[in-house]
Design a protein that fits this description.
globular, single chain, 5-stranded mixed beta sheet
Length: about 140
């Protein structure tokens, strides 16, 4: 990992905490496993103010380019809050397995994550920041 652990902007961390509290009862068993893993990673995450956030860290509203570790596929999507999710527009909710897998990682990071289809190795190819999360 480029920064040693995942990095989350402090206002986004508060949004995530509230979201996980509100959605707690709605998660499927599969999603719960991913969310539990993300919650575990958040316990050890570095929480930074907006002014100190590295530009290459995946956060809400980031456009992310990832590939399989073996380079058999590449995916580009925007990481969004659940109500903004739209697969046709490549907007992936942070509560979906792909969203929980990438949040807080940085460009160049390798990610090992359990998906419904099994354990997958991903590579973060690029991260672009476009919109800021409302405070």
């Amino acid at each position: 990992m480029k920064y040693g652990q995942i990095i989350i902007e402090e206002n986004e961390f508060l949004i995530l905490e509230n979201l996980f509290k509100l959605k707690k009862e709605e998660h499927s068993k599969t999603a719960k496993n991913h969310i539990l893993k993300l919650l575990y990673e958040l316990k050890n995450a570095v929480i930074l103010p907006e002014s100190e956030m590295p530009k290459d860290v995946i956060r809400l509203n980031s456009q992310v380019q990832i590939s399989s570790k073996d380079n058999l596929w590449i995916k580009i999507f925007e990481l969004v809050l659940p109500h903004q999710s739209n697969v046709a527009e490549n907007k992936i909710s942070l509560l979906l397995p792909m969203g929980t897998a990438v949040l807080g990682y940085a460009k160049g990071d390798d990610i090992l994550w359990e998906f419904p289809s099994g354990l997958k190795e991903l590579k973060v190819i690029d991260v672009q920041q476009f919109l800021k999360v409302l405070k």
